[in-house]
Amino acid sequence: MHSSPPLPAPQPDQAYMSVSALEGGLMQLHLEIFVKGAQPGDVLTVPSLAFLLTHSKSSKRVVFDLGCRRDINAHPPITRGFIERFTPYTVPMDVVESLAKGGLKPEDIETVVISHLHYDHIGDHTPFATANFIIGSGIKDRLLNGYPHNPSSHILASSVPLERTTFLSPSAFTTTTTLGPFPRALDLFDDGSMYIVDAAGHMPGHINVLARTSAVGSWIFLAGDSAHHPGMVSGEKEVFYDEGGRLGAPIRCVHEDRDEAVRHIGRMRALSGVRGVQVLLAHDAEWYDENKGTAFWPGRIEPKAL
To answer: Which family does it belong to (predicted)?
Structure first.
């Protein structure tokens, strides 16, 4: 078992988050740009997962990520080209439809946390017309100069509603020695139920969620795109880097800061060995196939046993 610094112990009458998976589309990942050693013909069908988190005491609802949007033509041209070449996708059910399965409407969601501004995580925010959005500030300049203001940008300038979006600056994250292996995090409800974790590496401003899933010590880590295959968390696989440039610039690595991404994966690997903790990637095909039923709203992801 991997070692990791301790997570915060539960307090009396501890608040926690009930977590449910949401459908956000299905992607065909051409693994050659994600996993070291994968061949051009290696293709894996994966989900683009989103999540509903409900606070045990206040019943406030948070959605983490919005999956893919059906209208592929809404994406910038450079993004559409990438999708066609490396990650074609379909959306049999989107996040709004997934919420509706359990009787929720977009206006029932108080907060939407977006891990980062890649196309398979921003979805379509327009139905969430009353929610407040949270993203990392590291990507703000690129967002403001996104497509169509900058025709060559792969970031859609309308990815989030600016008037209702909080950009988490570096100072918003508290330096901590008590949140397992993660050095910087924000206690969203100020009660130890849900933390937003600084997850630099994949792209500027990338954030993850660490949520307490029971009052007695169970946790879930929602890793976004910190890794694209569970084998990276286990240590069985490595991040691909195109040293020879055979795929063509600018695709050298799906992580903009590969070294920092690898360090963060190491932290997730340490966390994954902690009793009562589950680590879940946005594109975990094996988990999706095994949990299509009760883990999806209106069901929930069962807390991991202690």
So the answer is: Belongs to the metallo-beta-lactamase superfamily.
